[in-house]
Amino acid sequence: MPTPYADAVARYAEIDRARVYVPGHAADPGAAPALTEWFGAEVLRRDVPPLLAGIDKGPGNPLAEALTLAAEAWSARRTWFVTNGASQANRIAALALGAFRDSGDPVVGQRSAHSSFTDGVILAGLSPSFVSPSIDPVLGINHGVSPEVLRAALAGVARPKGVYLISPSYFGAVADIPAIAEVAHAAGAPLIVDAAWGAHFGFHPDLPENPVRQGADLVISSTHKLGGSLTQSAMLHLADGPFADELEPLVERGFTLTQSTSASALLLASLDLARETLQTGEARIAASIGAADRLRDEIRSRGRFAIVSDRFGDFADIVDADPLRVSIDVACGGLHGHTVRDRLERDGVSFEIATDSAVVAVLGAGVVPDVDRIVEALHALAPEQGGGEPAAAEATVALPEPGPLAMLPRDAFFAAGEAVPTADAIGRVSTDALAAYPPGIPNVLPGEVITAEVVEFLQRIAATPGGYVRGAVDPSLATLRVVGASVSK
């Protein structure tokens, strides 16, 4: 299967030439000895600038061909290669919605949206309305949104600009995208799915389906996460749905606004290569699924720890699970997730992330890790004193209702702010997004009023082992940053 852009870059790099253009290393080992030693001369030769004939310049160029092949692979009307990760794709989606319909129409988003979408809300001047995901009260983690919950949320919105949801979740929970798309479309809204963790979906019969094929209108795909491209590379897919004609030029404008004019040829080539690897990798993906299944089975058989996805049937919003995500409940085995991750990192076993109660193993499509080493290292950890108390996790996720939105997030973010004692921040408008971990759902967004209940919740989480509040100007929460009194009046 062809990889036109990657091949064109490789051919260009093979030609002996006097390079008197950027990048400054000019693929010259003498000019860049440290880079050459660290990366190798071949990488430097392939680190080429944009706007080269036969690579990305002119009609039908190899980059354009690679984009077409990617769109075909994910069944999209059009695909964009982005080189600042799914975070950039999220901001592009928000910017597109900002120009879609009247400025006063709200966008209905999952409250646990990635911070980059919140950034996009600020950049685009969007008015947000939120729908809460389901939460596992024992493990303190959030999942997704059911069609019924979305329908109820949309009932109070006259004319939504769009719907923004996440599937799969960080822990591999998959939402009912076909039904959710029907609900969104019935409300006249395009559906944007942050599928950052599902770039591999649809490339093996035992994997969940790709949301582009399930009715989503715009899909964020963090290809580097499980799809195998280089870190910071991602794709944005536009489906050939009912809103495609309106969205396509708006997405293109958002892409032009956010993409570097010197996008890395190495990152772009890695996306081209990852697409081909996924398309031809069914046997490799099967091996990864088999390894993940064995990891789950080994952990279950020993009885000390539990598998998070075994509880997915308790949640109405979850209809499937990513088999390449192995999320392990370590709290039931007397350990804190953060301690497990830190200790095993020192022992050469690296997990993706930890919460207070769990650790997450991610197997990239085609990766077969040493399952025995992982299982033995995990079970060799002695229980912690005071560790593994699910009741403590349960207490952390009685989420308070957020305060009312008093200002557009953009207006609050750019307003003159001041740090005040936390007690004095109650009743004031926040300039920052504050999210307590666990479970990682924003409790306050720019423009929302800070309430006493929210402050109490944030302080309680910050005081727990492993708990913290992302976005706080003061990690101790002695102060919070709010819109200046003269502005808020």
From TrEMBL:
Orn/Lys/Arg decarboxylase C-terminal domain ranges (all copies): 407-461
Gene3D superfamilies: Orn/Lys/Arg decarboxylase, C-terminal domain, Type I PLP-dependent aspartate aminotransferase-like (Major domain)
Organism: Agromyces lapidis
All residue ranges annotated as the Orn/Lys/Arg decarboxylases family 1 pyridoxal-P attachment site domain in the record: 3-301
GO molecular function, one term: transaminase activity
Entry protein name: Aminotransferase class I/II-fold pyridoxal phosphate-dependent enzyme
Keywords, alphabetical: Aminotransferase, Decarboxylase, Lyase, Pyridoxal phosphate, Transferase
Superkingdom as given in the UniProt entry: Bacteria
Statement: the UniProt record of this protein carries the keyword Signal: no
Pfam family of the protein (one): OKR_DC_1
Family: Belongs to the Orn/Lys/Arg decarboxylase class-I family.
InterPro entries on file: Orn/Lys/Arg_deCO2ase_major_dom (IPR000310), Orn_Lys_Arg_decarboxylase-I (IPR052357), Prn/Lys/Arg_de-COase_C (IPR008286), Prn/Lys/Arg_de-COase_C_sf (IPR036633), PyrdxlP-dep_Trfase (IPR015424), PyrdxlP-dep_Trfase_major (IPR015421)
Cofactor or coenzyme needed: pyridoxal 5'-phosphate
The keyword Transport is assigned to this record: no
